[in-house]
Records
---
Amino acid sequence: MPVPHKQSYIRTNISLAEKTIGSILLLLLIGIGVSIQQKGRSYDPNLFSVDETTLESTRNPVLNKASTLKEENAPASGETVTTYLEEDYSAFEDSYSEPAVIDTGESVFEKMDTFSGFKAMSDTEYYSADTLYEKINGRAPAYLGFNFQKLTCRTFTIKGVPGQYLDAFIFEMDTPVNAFGIFSMEREAGAKPLDFVNDGYRSEMGFFFRQGNAYIQVIASDVSEQVLAAAEEFSRITAAKIQINDTGVEAASILPMDQIIEGSISYIQENAYGLALLNDVFEARYEIKGLELSFFAMKTDPSSAQEALESVQQFFQDYGTVIENEPINGCQIVIGESFGQYSVVYLKNDELGGVMNADDLPTALAFIETFLKKPKP
Amino acid sequence: MSASNINPESKGMTRRQFTRKLAITGTAVAGALAGGIALWEPKHFLPGFEEKTGLSLPNYATESRKYLSDLAIAKGSEREHTIRAAIDALGGIQRFIKKNDRVMIKPNVAFDRPAALGATTHPDSLRALAKLCLEAGAKQVIIADNPINSPVGCFLKSGLEAVVHELDLKLIYPESSAFSNIQMEGEVLKHWPLFHRPLKNIDKVIGLAPCKDHNLCHASMTMKNWYGLLGGRRNQFHQHIHSIISDFALMIKPTFVVLDGFSVLMKNGPTGGRLSDVREMNTIIAGTDMVAVDSYGFTKLLERDIDLLQYVHKAHERKLGNMNWKDLKLKEVQA
């Protein structure tokens, strides 16, 4: 019997249920395809955006910092603000009382909303090392280089002088030496020294001084005598509130005061004159018979001082000439010449100092002899 | 053979039938997969892959004129007269500002300092420039900046707020909603929030910057002035300060810029704090090329070696301006 030709398998008996389920599945597939295509055409950024409520705590990382966004109580664009400086002082009550002297760890501005004759115009602002740039921007690295710890600042209006104000800043460093360092780095040459602090001066438009480990700036809005008098009063009050601490700054007192160029005292934290062992150095400039000399002093332990002196000698042996010299007044002396300039360095127990890079050796040597032979108080 | 020999209900299928159906099904599945892959856009579903978009600023510069200077240096004893003299040396304000123009002046009000300390645009300079624009028929003059310190305090203490009130200008403070993302191919600046509200529907943009020392980049002048249009945590750009400043010359093409060298903050910038840091140089520089203007200001006003100013070199190399200011059509005048 011949084998019949095999035909394609055709299932003709398809149940209604099967047809229904099949149709539903087909429609679903089409629907899924269309949905995916539509969904893929538009991106919803909210799917992966940050939940900003979680960042609320970081919006104001510094208490009362001056935000760069518009303040909530600021005027709308176009409105003007004049009320800040037009305080009615008729209701002003002088609530000033003599405060106890406090450490700079607690800001003076936190304690008082009003000083005698002044009224806070703004909230107190605080800045840490991480946020200092938000107040002084590109100037911040200079302060950070002296181990800046904290800035407290506030603006005060002046009683009886409408329209004028004082900006007060307290930059706290880790040590009095570092406060002296940043203070001296920004010091204004030839400015009049203050009589109520060891390190301070009056500028044309403000007062700048160091007290303890704080560097304080009181900047006036105007150069008028009335405003500057108020700024001085404010500075005195502020200085009185901060404990005196000159730890580490004693080396500055080694510097002779005769013929010193006013305002030239500075602090070099490390590598003074390019020498690795000359650290925590105080330097001043002097005018001697028309010549300018640079004199430095540092205090350390005797062995470190000896080591530093030997490094100075080694430097001149390597890069210049060492000139032999007898001790002066029992102090070891190293005289070196390099690139046509002369340095005379002495060692006295734990104290190292000397004239560096002078153009004239006899003048430099005479300066050191006078300094070492002068009886100390 | 009769039709009754064909049994369509026979159990199972032949190997050939199975292979055929498998091939058809496989082709259908493969086709569906291919279609899915083609339709699937990974950037829409994986964070970080989305295409970043943002605005770009129009070119606010006017056409260069053959017989007019592009760089003017004016010296004088009074600020407003000197600014007028500088603009006149460029061909007059009418060269730049037309009747009914909406003008934005971008001062540098970064810090809440009194004007005398040289850390901010001087109010007399703003007054002079704004008056010139109004005299030229400007429909509106907008003043705006996103300062480092509190905006209200900055505009108040610098004295600029008083000028705004005096001349009935429009002052726009930075608010959260005033920022839009800019998109550009800078060295550092690519996709970043920009203080855009003051620039909306603006016809002309003028930069008005003081000339001052800067601790990080040696100087803050007309190019760095545009930092005040950035939002976000812009401090991170300090690590690439010269690159970002050169990017500003790509970001914005202002109508012209004015470098106020009347009172120059010579040291302790950008904040200053002492009048002794400020030197009276009695000079105003105005120009259409801010790279050239800054180059002049750095060498002649701050009296420094141009080799120190990396951002000017970068901008010059990127052909965003000409640091060789002597090559420009230059005019020096005495007010």
Note: Chain A touches chain B through 63 residues (CB under 8 Å).
---
Amino acid sequence: MRKSVCSIVLTLLVLGSLGLGCSAASGSILSNVTPIVSPTSILPPETHKEPPITENWITPVKVEVGNFYPGAQAEWFVKVHNGNDAETTFAVNYRFPDHVGEGYVKPTEEVQDWIIIADTTPLLAPFETRTISILLDMPENAIAPGNKWEFWISVIDTSQAGFVRTELCPRWLITMR
Amino acid sequence: MKKKIRMLAMVIVFLVALVILAPVSGVVLALDNQDVTITAVPSYICITNAPGDWTVNEYDTSVIDTSTEYWSNPIDDVTTPSDPVVDGECRFTITNTSSVITKLTVNFVNFTGGDAMANSDDGSGGVGTFGAYSYCTEMTYTTGKVIAKVTGSDPMKENLAATTDIKWGLSCDTQTDVWTSGDAMTSTATITATAQ
């Protein structure tokens, strides 16, 4: 009888330790997990057109980040094409959106500090296409603007003179988990 | 009796194991499904605008009066566009070679120099402020014109089909108080293209 009770207690202790160990491990996994990026969705060939060489353009037009959470990172890029036949500097910056998609909210002020752009003033050669990394790094103790929120990246050809200038903006749509 | 106790002990151990381990494995499973995902739409946005300049009241004398609304209307600076707006009433042309449906928004920042009118953001001029609207072809001007604010303007044009050009214009309603400076003012309007 005593032996049975002892074996029960021992077994419970071992299982309890395993459980706690797993919880601790899962806790560290939670804080150290590296977000795995899903592959880019590619449009079917019949809908994909080659962009013009002699005009400025940007791609992608939308970046959708899902299952996001405080402490996570999401890194993607914007490709900027210089359609001028001269060296041109572009301004690439975080942009507060003028409007957002249905179901999305505008970002809070601190969001701009979460966005890291690899090069905010790239100088592109004539007809060059440059890939610029954009990193969304949300602090662990930050509060999301909402369950679904949006910001833009502004791309402006700084050689534009005169009263009217054009601005091209990819939209980043974030869905929290 | 001993056998029964042993059986009972095994059952208890089994049940306890279920209670302890089930939520952990649930968390592990949940973690596997909680990876951040990124999906990018690889289409492109490409617009150009011409001309890049506008001198208010340039079609008349270029002398700007207070409390007066001017349009970038090649037909006449002080004539309200029609309902619907026609191409001939729009100074600017957007050449659109984007591969996606786009949305166009126009923002109009404060003037600098001279009397440095600030944008009222409500479409009307006031003391030291100007009001501005953007409009485009086929729009019902009286109800469809869009306030061109410093930032955060509503879209001037939605669902612009890929590779479809559009003509557009701006209005400027000058301040109500008299000019104190004889110097010129300058400002910038930005037309922004995003995917619909």
Note: The longest strand of chain A covers residues 148-157.
